[in-house]
Amino acid sequence: MAAARLKIFISSVQKEFAKERKALRDYVQGDPLLRRFFDIFLFEDLPARDQRADDVYLEEVHNSDIYLALFGNQYGAPDKKGFSPTHREFNEATRLGKERLIFVKGMTDDNRQPKMKALIDEAGSQLIRRRVADTSELIPAVYASLVDYLAVKELLRAGPFDAAACENASWDDIDSEKVIKFVSLARRARAFPLPEDTPPKEVLAHLSLLNKERPTYAAILLFGKTPQRFLISSEIKCAHFHGLEVSKPIPFYQVYKGTVFDLVDQAVDFVLSKINLAVGTRELSVQAPVAYEMPPEVIREAIVNAVAHRDYTNNGSVQVMLFSDRLEVWNPGTLPPSLTLEKLRRPHGSVPGNPLLAEPLYLTKYIERMGTGTGDMIARCRKAGLPEPEFALTGGFVATIRRRPERAFEAVGGKTQAPSRHQGGTKLALSGNQVEILNQCVQACSIVDLMQLVGRSDRTKFRNQVLNPLIQEDLLMMTVPGKPTSSLQKYRVTERGRTLLAKLKKKGSGK
Length: 511
Fold this sequence. Notes:
The protein is of the alpha/beta class. It folds into 4 domains: 6-152, Rossmann fold, CATH 3.40.50; 161-229, no CATH class; 234-351 and 360-408, 2-Layer Sandwich (Heat Shock Protein 90); 432-508, Arc Repressor Mutant, subunit A. The protein contains 18 helices and 17 strands. The chain starts with 5 loop residues before the first strand and ends with a helix. Residues 281-288 and 407-428 have low confidence and may be disordered. It has a 6-stranded mixed beta sheet with strand order 9-8-12-13-15-14, covered by helices on one side. The longest helix has 18 residues, at 135-152.
């Protein structure tokens, strides 16, 4: 059962600090760490009641765990004894032995009322005050003080979330085959030092993915048999809308589960299967080059960033939403304090929100370590003639990539091409791999040959994600109908598929 949240009483002259009080409340409620531990009390949020305001103030101070005061220029209206509400609240918090956090707005005392200056001096004689120039300095100062309070009270977990032992998980929940496959890939990609026959448990220990011999959350997300059993919201939700806004019914909607590697691959495939694809000529190669309306590397970077850096303590999931004019990738998280939206657009250091999760993604070349991901996205969009990606913090972190208007879509080699289409004029969502498969299946081919052709290793996912959509569109057929897993099964392009290939070839040659 979760522990009750701690209550913070914010004291100040309400009119002078109306903006700051609201900003602090919204920040604490929106921050993934602070909202787990704290609730904010603001007098202005109370409903009307038949009770003296003075009594309510002092009662709430008594019920609070932390007294947080904002001192500015105004002292407030004094009572018969000459004390303002803020001064009385400070005295009550002191009498009750409450934790007191005092923030003084302004770096000098030139414009302060004398009684407020005296209150500041009184507080300063009892505890450490923090001076701030404005709201932009106040919020990080409050954040630091609250985190320090949690650490002192031993309420804050030591280390990042992904380093904690996954509750109720054991070694039996780790898929050893996935660990072995990772080692092989990491050795090829980044010269990972462990040999391929290293026992899986030693691999996880080397990667710091065990906590007292138990799998960490990072271990489950990377190599778990069923990661969503422990982290339900770690799935990815993908949706394709024909218009500019979210609307129901959703034409295409898919929820993907699995490890973080599976999630990235499946979500990227989803987007590539829905966007326009142009086919170039065979002037420079036997194989016709293909180009997507959005660079696949940018799509992949946006999705892998969302998976790697999201807040896994949040109940929200990563959402990938494709609209007629843009792709939005949303994740339940925020930027670390050292980064801003503006800094994302310039060279910056890498600040992973889940460092143990990020390391294996780096070792398999899913991400880079140097904080170059967003810069690469910007550069690739520019090179492709697209607007720069947009980044925003709106209830989470959102990356937006603009789609190319169909009339401006150009294929490899600089020749204007039309995207692939059904005969009836409806958009046909073909990936580059699917085009290769259709060309290969002019002669009947086995699933093994086709998987080798496009570099896929998971037979079930390949059949569901790549082959079945082609069969459903009547572009590909099985030589043994109704028995997709038959050992004699092969695949051959249909007449409709041949017609489409001929059209693509004709468009690729510029005829």
